[in-house]
Amino acid sequence: MRFNKQELTTLATQPSQKFDKEGVLFLRERQEGFFRRSEISLERWCRLRGNLLFYFKSREQWSEPLGVIILEQCSIKVDSPTTEGPYGFHLVFEGGLSQHLAAYSEGERDAWLQSIQLASYDCMRSQLLALQQRMELRRGQDPDLDVHMWRIRRGHTVDPSELPLCEISLACDNLLCDGHGRPPNPVLVVHVYIPMDGVWIKYAKTEVVERSSNPGFLNTVSFRASDGLSSETRVRLTAYDVREHVSQTATPIGSSIVTLGAVQETDRLRIPLRSPSGTTVGFLSLTVWNLELEDKGGSTESTPCRSAPENDIGAVFSHRRSQSLPPRLGIKLKLPHQGHLHQLFANPHVQTYRFHSGLGGDISVHEVMAESRLCFQFPQQLLALWIQEEKELLQEVAGMGELREPWHSRQVELLDRHLQLLHLYSQAQEHLQAHRGSFFKPSSRKHDRTLEFAPVNLHLQRMWVQNDTLRKSGFYDIITVGAFTAHSHKSKNGGLIKLLQQLKESPGKDNSSLQGPTKISMAHGAIQAIKQLRREVVDGMRALMKLAKEKQTAGMLPICEDMISKTRILLSLWDPGLVEEALSFVEEHKVAQPVPEETLDGAEEGLGSLELWQQQTLSPYRRITQQLNFDLKSPDVDDLVSPDSPRCTRNFWNLPTNGTVSRLKGTDSNVDVQKSLSQSESSQRDDQFVIFPDADGEYKDEEIDSTNEFNSKPASHKTGKNTDEIEVDEQTPITNGLETDPGRKFLDTQAMCSSPSANYYKPTDEPEPWDLTQLNIEASVMCLVSKVKFLCGRCGSPAVRLRSQRGMGRSRSFRSGLVCHQVPTEETNSPDGVVTVQPTSSVSSKNSSQVEDMKSIVTDAEKEGLVKTNEDTIGLSATMSSDDVLNKTVDTVQKAVNGAVVRNGATVRNKFTEGLDFASIVDWTCELRPSMRKLRQAMDGLLKTARLTHSVFRVQEDSRAAQKACNVRYRRDVCFSQALTSLVTGLMAKLWCQKPDPTFLMVLTTLGPLVSFEGLLSYYGDEIDMWGDMAVAVEDLVTVTFILSRCAANASSSNSSDANTINNNRCGSGVQSQQQPMPRVVGSRTALTVYLPVPDNVHSLLPLTSPSTPAVSFNVTPVFFNVGINEMATLAESLGNTRPQDKSNLDNYERLNEYYHRFRKLHLPVEPPGQRGPSCAPLQPSLADLMENLRVVVHTKQSKNVDVLHVSSRICRRMKGLRFTSCKSAKDRTGMSVTLEQCQILMSEYDLAEHEFQRALDCMRSEGSRRENTCKNTGVRKYAFNSLQLLTLPRLYRPPAGTYGSAQT
């Protein structure tokens, strides 16, 4: 430790009366010699003062001390008793050091032991606390019991919407000065008496007013009936004089006791303060308000007013009186309506204030800080999506089959990488699910890897203001959250920004590696596009099935046209050259799979091949894939599984033979989900395929009904029926699709878009030629459209041609080279007729094989009644080229559909209609179902090939670059999860926790809201990484699409969809079991969609939807301005390191400016200055002036340019945007920023008096909710600033005396 030798010497040589004990002790000291070291006990004169034990060589008055022992963090160990002296003991310090001391006699030793034990600071502090407790208990107070602890014991939390019994404002006058004429530093403490327990509990406290005998306090006190208070409750108000701020040492001035009933009966009460001796030491004034609900007499929740209702204060326009004047009689202040705050936020902390305006009136302020219930719930949904995506990629790579070296090792590396990621994501999800306790992640756990996907210290900071003079009130929300960063990933390299730049720049050695990432991204993009288009095509099928069930021809043809255009795009997505390259690679490098010699039955095929594998030496690839059970699936079943709903349809094969549904729980989170299904699916395969069955069966009626019940939004708008059911359905959760009948899930787009595809090639499969895949899609679309036209009475209309004749003859050599190894097998077991290529041991010539493929397509059409002919009429022969075969087949199918085959100069009817009597078709859905199934399976084949191509390019990627990209992606996911959770919290607070704002909803539905992130990170040290992570996470929010979906009913209603709501009774919140509206996220990593439920009163203000736009969707425009304010920022600026931060602020200004120009075109009305005319309102700069001001300050080179933050926050609020404030842990710097912003709002919009600004700021920082936030995070009610940091903070960001000190940062 550091010490001042001169000061210690002066302290040690003072007179004897200054010391607690003096005497002779033997000290064991180390003696240094030439040959050895020894320890001997020497007699020393010792003097004890406080916790300092000085020892001297002699007792002479002027001798200097030889040393000092500091008696802290030590224990005493007494030596074993001896018959003769000296009598010794050890001082054992933490860390292992010890000092031996001894006395002449046993009595003297015991006296020294007693003095040393009482000397430490800890001992003195415990004595002080014990004395305080004795005094408090003597006076009938429980010293450990304040109102917060009282509420915790009763299992009760404050409801900000509760109407208090009354609210009082306090002031004192004529307080006595001390003997030197110095006025006191008064503070008032309010206690209430609880008769049940017979104790006084500390109920509230005001701020400290410096040096004033006539203080007026800004904090107000609200008395709540929920705390057990009534008109008989006794209230004691005590005034203290604070002598020292840091330790809060205070002496009582005087107190008064009144009953709450007496306070409620009057508007103003002045009572004397009595000292303990009974003399009057001053007077206390209480100003009393009775509040009423803000929306009393206004509109109901279901029919909100578009403009704020006029308050019924009457037409008397006069100033609110200040506290020095009696208030006007009959005045009623409003209590803000907080909406459904208690359902989305927990553990609110409420603080109320009364400030003076410049016009002599009062400004009423309610400050609320609450924890978000979404903090640990929402990231679980994102993790579920990423887990499914990793499973997809894992199965994709395994589906390639085993490759030869050098690709085999790369393939195994890729599998290992996905398994590792799967493990990390799954563990993170489990930890979040297992979390119990508070609803926020404290800053002390920000390095905890188990909760790294949850944002740090996420809170809603809300201020409600009412200025009765201006007749104006409003909510101001800020979401406070720690920086979006991966704290546990130590890397001083600039965060995600630098890592992503390095990834882009790294492939510069050879050209092949340059093309790798672009091919991978192209393939991945194509897969996502195929999934999206297929989802839309299936939506069309659902709409057709609904119309077919109702036999409504109106609307069928437009749906068909839309499906035709979608399938056209589907066929043009892929570059055939890339597919050819990938399939050639697989053909060249794939290890031949062992095929059993005997042809096994369907039930034994998969298991037989597994037994054969087990007899051989397993390669790493086979060992991994066997563990994952990828090869246990039966090919027949696999071809029929729907691609994007495996959780439903995989279990669909597990239906018992009696037709009842067996529900498998939890299979969607297992990698080896096929294992549980493979045992039963083989024995039940033939009789359980009921997806669109061809013939009437036991499932048919159920299937038709379910198709109608599970209709989608587009279908509902076209028919105009069942709209309410559908909107409820929009809320049906997709996280567990096994709860309902799997049969109806075949066309469930909600399950499709959230779960991984089960459609992959198996390692034993040979890939299907690209042209065959395209031909299957064309033929099935033509079949379906022709049937629809027949049902609509338009069977003579021309057929559809999806591709031009020219595009049919591509990649001849590639196709013929592939087909020579394949012969299609007749699939008599399954009712599908789509061309599939299965591996067999026989080999034929390429042309005859190709002809057989084409014949099977025509045979398909013949089954449908499209073609009734033989091979000769088509003109296929084994000598034709593959392209001629393709063209000839398509022409024949099209002519059959179109009825264009000419016989003797006359056009023959469509073959499809022959043998069909329109009147005899009872069920249209039975006619459409087979064609729809075939189209679905054909699209599945397209996706299979796309996935295979994607996995080939990923295996070819450089392994080191791939590993680096994988690490960056994981870090990016961590940061993005924190950012999106915070953003969704802000949006839900705006939509659910206040009255609907029509202007905000207008901006939301046209432009999408502006989201302003304010950062206070320093561009130095670890915080550079945090800044880089946060910048990328904020930028990634642009890619998220939000869709507003109507919540079935208000969350308190009993008929709301309980599947979508979650009861939150943790922490003993005391709120009744009310259901929480839960946002849900679907899609893929690159294209996420978040469904936000909205209450009825918000939904009624949204624009009407149409069939083309079935739901209101929007994207946000995020901007991120960062300016460091602490001592690290001073260091960074002095070193000139802040250029990246400045450039980022400039770029974000450009984005904000672009948004402003779009916002200006909306021509929204300027916010009215107030109800009493512009003369009384504070002057407000226009939005254009603010934008110009921001342009100037962003380009200004200035140290700690916090004006950027102030101006951008005002612009955000004026454009109805959402505000977010962050520092490292959203505790200290964020607390300073949020309180400053709140006071600036009061000054600029509510006419807070200029001379009151600093006082109001100090009051919010010392007694407001942000001080409580520091206590929740660290257990200490102090901001973690030291004196050095305080000097480097900008003046407006400095906390008041006594509120900061040494605490955990």
TrEMBL record:
<comment type="similarity">
    <text>Belongs to the inositol 3,4-bisphosphate 4-phosphatase family.</text>
</comment>
<comment type="pathway">
    <text>Signal transduction; phosphatidylinositol signaling pathway.</text>
</comment>
<feature type="compositionally biased region" description="Low complexity">
    <location>
        <begin position="1051"/>
        <end position="1065"/>
    </location>
</feature>
<feature type="compositionally biased region" description="Polar residues">
    <location>
        <begin position="664"/>
        <end position="682"/>
    </location>
</feature>
<dbReference type="InterPro" id="IPR011993">
    <property type="entry name" value="PH-like_dom_sf"/>
</dbReference>
<feature type="region of interest" description="Disordered">
    <location>
        <begin position="826"/>
        <end position="853"/>
    </location>
</feature>
<keyword id="KW-0443">Lipid metabolism</keyword>
<feature type="region of interest" description="Disordered">
    <location>
        <begin position="664"/>
        <end position="689"/>
    </location>
</feature>
<feature type="region of interest" description="Disordered">
    <location>
        <begin position="1051"/>
        <end position="1078"/>
    </location>
</feature>
<dbReference type="GO" id="GO:0016316">
    <property type="term" value="F:phosphatidylinositol-3,4-bisphosphate 4-phosphatase activity"/>
</dbReference>
<feature type="compositionally biased region" description="Polar residues">
    <location>
        <begin position="1066"/>
        <end position="1077"/>
    </location>
</feature>
<dbReference type="GO" id="GO:0005737">
    <property type="term" value="C:cytoplasm"/>
</dbReference>
<dbReference type="InterPro" id="IPR035892">
    <property type="entry name" value="C2_domain_sf"/>
</dbReference>
<feature type="domain" description="PH">
    <location>
        <begin position="18"/>
        <end position="121"/>
    </location>
</feature>
<feature type="region of interest" description="Disordered">
    <location>
        <begin position="704"/>
        <end position="743"/>
    </location>
</feature>
<dbReference type="InterPro" id="IPR001849">
    <property type="entry name" value="PH_domain"/>
</dbReference>
<dbReference type="InterPro" id="IPR000008">
    <property type="entry name" value="C2_dom"/>
</dbReference>
<protein>
    <recommendedName>
        <fullName>phosphatidylinositol-3,4-bisphosphate 4-phosphatase</fullName>
        <ecNumber>3.1.3.66</ecNumber>
    </recommendedName>
</protein>
<feature type="domain" description="C2">
    <location>
        <begin position="141"/>
        <end position="273"/>
    </location>
</feature>
<dbReference type="InterPro" id="IPR039034">
    <property type="entry name" value="INPP4"/>
</dbReference>
<keyword id="KW-0378">Hydrolase</keyword>
<feature type="compositionally biased region" description="Low complexity">
    <location>
        <begin position="834"/>
        <end position="849"/>
    </location>
</feature>
<dbReference type="Pfam" id="PF00169">
    <property type="entry name" value="PH"/>
</dbReference>
